[in-house]
Amino acid sequence: MPETIVALATPPGVGGIAVVRLSGEEALAVAAKVFFPRNAAKKVENAKGYTALYGQFVENGRPLDEGVALFFRAPHSYTGEDVAELSCHGGPVVAQSLIDACIAAGARPAGPGEYTRRAFLNGRIDLTQAEAVMGLIGAAGRQGAALARTALEGALAKRIGGFKQQLVALAGHLAAWVDFPEEDVPALEPAALNAVLEEVENGLEDLIRNFGAGAVLRQGVDAAIVGSPNVGKSTLLNLLAGFDRAIVTPIAGTTRDVVEQAVMLGGVRVNLRDTAGLRDTGDVVEAEGVRRSRRALEEAGLILAVFDGSLPVAEEDRQLAAACAGRPAIAIVNKSDLPQKFDPAAIAGSFAQVVTLAAGRGEGAQALGEAVRRVLGVADLDPSAPCLVSQRQYAAACQARDALAEAKGALAGGFGLDAVSVCLDDALAALCRLSGEDASDAVVEEVFSTFCVGK
Ligand code: GDP
Questions:
Q1: What residues does 84 pair with on adjacent strands?
Q2: Torsion angle in degrees (nearest 10) through CA of 133, 137, 142, 148
Q3: CB 402 within 8 Å of CB 431
Q4: pLDDT tens-digit map of 393-405
Q5: N or C: which end of the chain has fewer CB within 10 A?
Q6: pTM score, whole prediction
Q7: In the beta sheet, which residues pair with residue 88?
Q8: Can you name the residues that pair with 18 across neighbouring β-strands?
Q9: Going by C-beta distance under 8 Å and a sequence separation of 6 or more, which residues neighbour residue 245?
Q10: Interval between CA 233 and ligand 1 midpoint (Å)
Q11: In this predicted model, what pLDDT tens digit does every residue of 232-252 receive, in sequence order?
Q12: How far is the CA of 360 from the centre of ligand 1 (A)?
């Protein structure tokens, strides 16, 4: 019998209310030792599921606080076990004293992710949903949270379940046909077989393609602001940050080190790195800054290359454009308030997007945000569509897709239905791994060890 566990379910620190959560067979018995209903006729042990009682929390026989206890009865709770949620006043002392009281009454502290793990083990959620809980807790932006919520609601589980059903039907048919030749099992038309394999393969391909964009929404992206000195990189950083983060002067080479600032741009958390500018210099300190700029450019998941619209295209500009070719890079032609001498067509071929703006006038942040969404592929991402939320899920989806591609290859190459059937089994095994149906202890351990305690 799993022990009854206790942990703080709300974030630590000062707040209006703190919730201490008990889960396990003894949850209500433990609650009864630390919580006494105001109405003495009510008994905690007899509380029905989905009911609340008002009363007093007690530690070592001394009153601790007043609050509300909420009860859930197995299997209708988050963990699938009996659960009591004790809401006391926020603040580390009261909540910790209440946890201590619960431990003295027979509960033990929960390990990281143990509530969600129990929910998984009790069949309340599948592994994709368990990972979504973690995604929701760690989401960097509103849209990232929406994606995780979709997964939590089981959209991914349903989609994967649908794929599995299609493949299981095929595998069953193939097995019957191969193993029982004397029965009158109709042969599978290769075209029909291929159509199903392709449909599932394409479905997986969609999930795989959107994984990068989903990760950007959940975790944000590191971006480098690069460009020649004085084009307005620091001004742009300050505009996006909403305050003067970097020093702006008309003197070229003012920014000598990398300045970092996280901003929300087009709904994406962008960790901006303003760099020293790429130019040949004899100044040792600035040369080190230029070296760091190059590194920031190489490591960035997004490049904002700034050009001065009031100057003609220079050799440095062409070099920067060449360095950005094939990268997720946006050309920003700045200083649009001045007479324009810059010909964007000279560099546009190296960039996914070109945006003209006047950072000095505080103009263009919105247009830039839209360009960021398009370049990172998040513009078309539907937050209510299923989405892979972890590297583990991504790897399993890729394995399933590859196995289906092999199955199609075997079919087209005339290798016989046995060979197709083997590949099909591999694809099914990968999909089961994805949803955690045959999750080995190691997989389960990996997923749950990254959780926060109390979740
Ligand atoms: P950095 O060296 O690339 O970081 O450039 P700064 O941000 O320090 O800006 C260099 C100069 O250009 C400063 O004098 C800014 O005020 C000016 N500047 C920046 N953006 C604009 C703009 O949109 N229009 C105009 N007219 N001047 C700008």
A1: 22, 71
A2: -20
A3: no
A4: 888 999 999 999 9
A5: N
A6: 0.60
A7: 18
A8: 88
A9: 237, 238, 259, 261, 274
A10: 7
A11: 988 998 888 875 555 454 444
A12: 6
